[in-house]
Amino acid sequence: MNEFTAIALCLLPIAFAHGWYTGKKQGISNFLGFIYSKRNKQDLTCMIFPDEDTVEFVDPLEYNKKVLEGIADALGKESS
Fold first, then answer.
1. C-alpha–C-alpha distance, residues 2 and 45, integer Å
2. Which residue of 34, 39, 54, 60 pairs with 46 in a disulfide if CB–CB is 3.0 to 4.6 A?
3. What is the DSSP letter of 40?
4. Total structural domains in the chain?
5. Distance between CA 61 and CA 49 in Å, rounded?
6. Distances from the Cα of 78 to the Cαs of 43, 51, 64, 70, in angstroms?
7. pTM of the full predicted structure?
8. Could you tell me if 44 and 62 lie in one domain?
């Protein structure tokens, strides 16, 4: 076996691992940048996960309003 072939076989897994690590790090950075771009004026990001593959960004005030209305409706039905 040629020396260059042996060196290439040793360096190929190292190059792959380095590329994978760099790509993972850059992907996480891009994802966090995207989430920070969805902040409101109070610097809050509210995400809900309706299922495993879906992420929805919602306004925290609207979400809280819907939750409180749901609680009020449930209490109203329970008391009548």
1. 57
2. 60
3. -
4. 2
5. 17
6. 37, 29, 21, 12
7. 0.50
8. yes
CA nearest neighbour of 45 among 28, 33, 53? 33
Q: Does one domain contain both 45 and 80?
A: yes
In this structure, the answer to whether residues 59 and 45 fall within a common structural domain is: yes
Residue whose token pair is 């690590």? 21
**pLDDT of the residue at 1:** 64
Q: What is the pLDDT of residue 22?
A: 86
Q: Residue 10: how many CA atoms within 13 Å on its side-chain side? A: 6
Radius of gyration of the chain (CA): 25
Do 54 and 20 fall within a single domain? no
- According to the model, what pLDDT value does residue 70 have? 92
For residues 19 and 7, state if they share a domain. yes
**Range(s) of the domain holding residue 52:** 40-80
What pLDDT score does 71 carry?
A: 94
Q: In the prediction, which pLDDT does 17 show?
A: 86
Is the same domain home to 10 and 27? yes
